[in-house]
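Duplicate of earlier report; Protein translocase subunit SecY input re-posted below.
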Amino acid sequence: MWELFVRKTRLIIEDETLRSRVLFVLAALIVFRLLAAIPIPGIDAAALSTYLANNQFLGLLNIFSGGGFSTLSIMMIGVSPYITASIIMQLMTVLSPKLKTLYQEEGDAGRQRFMQYSRYLTVPLALIQGFGFLVLLQQNGIVPQLGFFHLLTNVFVVAAGAMLIMWIGELMTEYGVGNGVSLIIFAGIVAGIPSSLAQFAFAFDVAQLPAYVGFAAAAVVITAGVVFITEAERPIPVTYARRVRGMKVLGGVSTYLPLRVNQSGVMPIIFALSILLFPQMVASFLAQSSIPLVASVASAVASGLSNNWVYGALYFILVFVFTYFYTAITFEPNQIAKNLQKNGAFIPGVRPGQTTAEYLGNIITRITLVGALFLGILAILPIILQGLTGITALTIGGTALLIVVSVVLDVVKKIDAQTSIREY
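Output:
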């Protein structure tokens, strides 16, 4: 492992293009962390810390803000509006055949237009989320009561911060290494590690030393499992038919089509969180209503969702369902079968065309079951362990671990691709 790290570092240093891309990513992350340290005025830090500790969904939102929500910085909603806009656009491909064609069949130009629509949708979502969270925090005494002009100014500042961080993320994707939005979330998770270690050090109890050792061993096993499932794939053998052109014989080679077990990556967890965050935010907002019936219903919904076991059950179900949903959107067996047939390729023992599409569909349905169960269990694993052990200072698994592993593997693959281009 150490030799691999040294070799990658040496390649980055020697390759000028790769070195400039890595340095650009580091510079962009430094700018982001500096902006995330600029708070909006009048914050009660103690009340904010207590509120976040007792609120599950705001803690998850803090992950997707890159750590900006924990300080209520000008980046407090982070990339959350952009992710929500992307999710809405993905859902719209199911309802709109034009958008589906634009996203799946019109190549890079179509995807660029599709992403532009996502950017347009991000603006109103950022304004709505900024206003909703500021009003919610005012009701809980974390932000002082603001007049209309000051509230409007803060909403525009927060929305502008969301658009700025979206722009920084896209610049990192274009001129850096890896996906910029994922790297921003990754940076926020990593930035919270020192404070988590400090919290653990203060809460350390010698009597629970066996539990800590068990946690450490389980963390290694779970991390290895995440890497294994993330990289796992089912190879489907593909053979190209022989074709004679003049004096040349083309084709006749065999390769394989890799079907990933976790085809959808981290997107189902993001989908599930977005669905869970919205009703909790609305319920918390309406709980302060002056209408008794509305306030009581909202309080009941908020208290029900704040129950760890209810929250965990809903979280698992949504992740499981969205894994199949997102896989169905991104993986088109009919299109793959059509492309194979056009290129004179076939799966041995399977007729080309519709039979191939059905064969691929059946396989992806079966292996997605493993991926869906894996994502669902991983998402609720911290809730299960905290409920069984009662130790809240340590958590294993969850969204943060999957994001960190996925981002690290993606960056390593991008660096390998760059170095392979350089070698050839």
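The beta strands are 233-240, 243-245, 248-250, 254-260, 345-346.

Merging into the original ticket.
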